Amino acid sequence: MSIHYLEIVTPEVDVACSVYAQAHGVTFGEPRAELGNARTATLGDGTLVGVRAPMHESEEPVVRPYALVDDVRAATDAAEAAGAMIAHPPLEIPGVGTFAIFFVGSTQHGLWQLPS
Fold first, then answer.
1. C-beta atoms surrounding 14 within 10 Å
2. Would you give the end-to-end CA distance of the chain in angstroms?
3. Using an 8 Å Cβ cutoff, are 46 and 2 in contact?
4. 36, 44, 76, 110: least surrounded by Cβ within 10 Å?
C-alpha cells in the first residue's frame, strides 16, 4: 500500500503547517480550492500532505491517509463488502484524481486514484 495523500484537518492550519515545515523541512503552498483550501507540501517520496480547516462545523479534526489505488470504485466496493462504512463515495476532482472516504469503526481512511 502506498499513501498518495495525507490529509490533516485542523482549525490551526497555519500552526500545523509551521510545525510540519520545520520538523520535516518542507514548504507548504497557498490554499488549493480543489482540495478544500488545503495548503499542500510534497514529501521526498512524492507523498502529498495537505493541511486544511474543517469545511463545516460538524467536521472533526482528523489525520486521514489516502491509499493510492488503480480503480477507486472497485476498491470502495471491496472496502464496503469487507465491512467499511462509506462516508464519501468516489468523486473526481478534475486534473487531480478521484477520491473516496470510508470508516472502519471510528477510523477514517481514504482511497485515491490518479487521473488517467
1. 12
2. 20
3. no
4. 44
Q: Map out the domains of the chain as residue ranges.
A: 7-61, 69-116
Domain 69-116 has CATH 3.10.180.10: yes
Beta bridge partners of 38: 32
Reply yes or no on whether the pLDDT at 107 is more than 90.
yes
pTM, two decimal places: 0.93
Burial of residue 103 (number of CB atoms within 10 Å: 0-12, 13-18, 19+): middle
Contacts of 49 by beta carbon, 8 Å cutoff, 6+ apart? 5, 6, 8, 20, 26, 40, 41, 42, 43
Could you confirm whether domain 7-61 is CATH 3.30.720? yes
